[in-house]
Amino acid sequence: MWDVADSSQLVDVGSECHFPTLVPVTSHLSNHCTTRLVRRAFLKRAADDHRVEALQPTGIPILDKVTGGGFPRPSAIALLGPIGSGKSMLVRELVTNFIRQGCSLLYYCIDDPADIVKLGLEDHHIAVDKIESEGRLEFVDMFSLGAQKLAESLPKMDPSEILDETLKFQDLLSYGRAFALKPGLGPKIIVMDSITPFFLLTEARKVFQYVQVMRFATRIARAVTIAILHTEVVDESLENATANLADGVIEMRKRSGEILLKGGTMKVLRIGRNPVASRGYFYQITQQGIVFSNTPVI
Q1: Fold assignment, 55-296
Q2: By the 8 A CB rule, do 119 and 150 touch?
Q3: Which residues, listed in sequence order, are joined to residue 269 by a DSSP beta bridge?
Q4: Cα–Cα distance for residue pair 192/225, rounded to 1 Å
Q5: Coil, strand or helix: which one is 248?
Q6: How far apart (Å, rounded) are the C-alpha atoms in residues 115 and 112?
């Protein structure tokens, strides 16, 4: 059998998956003693062997621990939680770590304009302009597009009509197509912050279609897609559809009674082939970002 010494270091390069510390172990019993013969090896997974998932480390120790080493790639990850629970802050920390790992990233700015998102990344000491010029970081500023349409249409157009014109799921696909097919400078990451406005403007059956198409696109790009959904805003059936169709689900809950966010609890409800939810872990919002407790909630 194979004893994996450190599965968190699993890295996928192109179509190959490398295991830097796989240890083959053989055992036999003699005089009630077990002899273990161990030698180091370096294996490459065959292209048609899908038993082991390629993982993209998140760079957040507790999240890598409970996910078994990171997010499966390709996969669509849903980040769920009420408004103000710190989801966007967590995503920006993840984006920072992915960029430092050499990933190429497409960021859909839907809840906030791209300028605000860029400032958040620069607060994490990311040279945004430099990485953009290298072609490893792209922004789709759908927030500013909506603001521009509002300025052009007032007072002629109703605000709801502006949203209908600005937030179209087809636009997400068209913007992402070139990124998905572009020769990679590294593993691809797609962030949608957030998909809530799209779900507020469409019927339930369309949501099922959209999430499934999103998963198709993720596999074409062999990417990790992270989509934020604000719970307690959209219909519960839409929340359930998103959670059930996604490859992984992370839930964030702020502490009850808090108006301004200071902290809460994070739980991995499902990830990849592991359907078992993790225990919750406390997090605290600080000036340096999100700090997670290493001890699960009792």
Answers
A1: Rossmann fold (3.40.50)
A2: no
A3: none
A4: 8
A5: strand
A6: 8
**In angstroms, rounded to a whole number, what is the distance separating the alpha carbons of residues 188 and 223?**
5
Give whole-number Cα distances, 29 to 32, 33, 37, in Å: 6, 6, 12
**Spatial distance between the Cα atoms of 41 and 21, rounded to a whole number of angstroms:** 7
Residues sharing a CB contact under 8 Å with residue 205, sequence separation 6 or more, in sequence order: none
Going from N- to C-terminal start, the domains of the chain cover 2-44, 55-296
| φ, ψ (nearest 5 deg) of residue 112 | -135, 150
- Who contacts 137 (Cβ-Cβ below 8 Å, separation ≥6)? 99, 104, 105, 107, 128, 131
Distance from C-alpha of 17 to C-alpha of 295, rounded to nearest angstrom: 32
Among left, alpha and beta (phi > 0; psi -120 to 50; other), residue 142 is: alpha
- Cis amide bond preceding 24, omega within 30: no
> How far, in Å, CA of 65 to CA of 204, rounded?
35
Which pLDDT score, from 0 to 100, does residue 154 have?
66
Give the CA dihedral 251, 257, 262, 263, nearest 10 degrees.
Answer: -30
Identify residue 184 by its one-letter amino acid code.
Answer: G
Which residues, 6 or more positions from 296, have their beta carbon under 8 angstroms from its beta carbon? 278, 279, 280, 281
Question: Which range, of 146-160, 208-222, 235-249, averages the lowest pLDDT?
Answer: 146-160
Is the preceding peptide bond at 74 cis, omega within 30 degrees of 0? yes
Query: What does the pLDDT look like over 113-123, one tens digit per residue?
Result: 999 999 999 99
What mean pLDDT, rounded, does the chain reach? 79
Say how far apart CA 291 and CA 284 lie, in whole Å.
Answer: 5
The pLDDT score that the predictor gives to residue 100 is 96
pTM above 0.85, yes or no: no
- Average pLDDT over every residue of 36-53: 42
CA nearest 212: which of 182, 180, 171, 173? 173
Helical ranges in 157-203 per DSSP H:
159-166, 169-181, 196-200
